[in-house]
Amino acid sequence: MEPESRPCFRFAPSPNGWLHLGHALSAILNFEMARAARGRFLLRIEDIDATRTREDYVEGIIADLKWLGLSWEEPVRRQSRFMADYLAAQERLQARGLLYPCFCSRTDIARAVEAREHESGAPWPRDPDGAPLYPGTCRALGSAGLARAAAGEDCAWRLDSPRALEAAGEIAWTEVDEQGEAHEVRAEPAAWGDVVLARKDIGTSYHIAVVIDDAAQGVTHVVRGRDLYHATSMHRLLQILLDLPAPLYTHHRLVLDANGEKLSKSLKSTALRELRAEGATPDDVRELAGLDLLDVDAERP
Ligand code: GLU
Fold this sequence. Notes:
By secondary structure, the chain is an alpha/beta fold. 36% of the residues lie in helices and 14% in strands. It contains ten helices and ten strands. Strand 1 (8-11), helix 1 (21-36) and strand 2 form a beta-alpha-beta unit. The site of glutamic acid (GLU) has 7 residues, from loops.
């Protein structure tokens, strides 16, 4: 069989809440950009976090997307079925000494950060999501940490960012804006510090699963909200470390609430199922999400 050469887009929600107008914008954009490019459109359920996944949310996502008039290739990939692939990627990074085990609780980290701030009198640096960077406590354990992990002590695995950055060198990605113009963006994975790549509770992480899946599914165009713009730096770093191809990226504007805040899954008023129950049509949703303002047919790379 010929390898698939058509452009490939995906919508990849996490089933930990109902879809809202922001998801509608993202899903419809991906669907229509795929159609304009005569490409493929995939739906992927990002359900690695069993503590937050609910089957009724998965069913709700599918029902809402069908109601919007979208269709996708079957079978739908569910991340929870591919844990072995994510573990294999983590093992490759471990084997190169790019991950280290971390035994800290949230409280341990908060205390260490507080102590550093107290010592220096200056605020401790934060990651792009506003969380304090990991102060590196367990990196200092070296082989003693590895021995504790090998003996079966519960731990998370963190990126050894200085080593990883050195191994990867300069990193960039291609951002395609909403008008279809492509430009290079310099990635800044250092902004995330020693991020957790395998959580203690679920054994993997969003960053690992998303880069493995985008590569496994042949995704060529990642179109997602601006809230994930900075995550792309980490995704590019991992793609380089794991020898995975780089898709093109578009980070579209977010749908904001009346206070100018990003929509949240807990806000009922913008959930698609609520709007639908109140008699809204798919066209109303497009208008509310601001889709009529975008030119998805623009010439794209
Ligand atoms: N699952 C992520 C979310 O729902 C999106 C992942 C992505 O598009 O890269 O926010």
